[in-house]
Amino acid sequence: MAGGLVVAVLPDIYRDIVEIIADAPGPVQAKQIVPRIGLPTTTGKIEGTRGKLKRLVERGWLDEDTPGQFTLARQGPGRDRANSQ
User: Fold this and answer.
1) Are 79 and 72 spatial neighbours (Cβ–Cβ below 8 Å)?
2) Which of 7, 23, 31, 35 is the most exposed place for a label (fewest CB within 10 A)?
3) Closest by alpha carbon to 6, among 53, 64, 76, 63?
4) What DSSP string runs through the chain?
5) What angle do CA 70, 42, 7 make, to 5 degrees?
């Protein structure tokens, strides 16, 4: 990924997810994010959001140290923009 990436490069829903996690005091689960982004807490919406969270992990924005528990990435575009790859 290019250096200097900021959350503004993400599509709206992904940006909202990253911002919610950034404001959280600790790890966040998909079922906690769904109502905060204005979706009903149905299994389908939770699973769809979990998929988005996994994509953000793959792209270096989030970490998932414990299964189902998401935090901002310690390194990568979401956390250390000046030193991202």
Assistant:
1) yes
2) 23
3) 76
4) --TT--GGGS-HHHHHHHHHHHHSSS-B-HHHHHHHTT----HHHHHHHHHHHHHHHHTTSEEEEETTEEEE-SSSTTT-GGG--
5) 35
Residue 8 has pLDDT above 90, yes or no: no
Report pLDDT digits (tens) over 30-44: 999 999 999 999 999
Question: What is the overall mean pLDDT for the chain?
Answer: 86
Which amino acid makes up residue 21? Answer: I
Across 9-26, average pLDDT: 94
Alpha-carbon dihedral angle through residues 9, 14, 16, 21, given to the nearest 10 degrees: -110
- With tokens 């600790």, the residue in question is 26
Could you tell me the pTM of the whole model?
Answer: 0.81
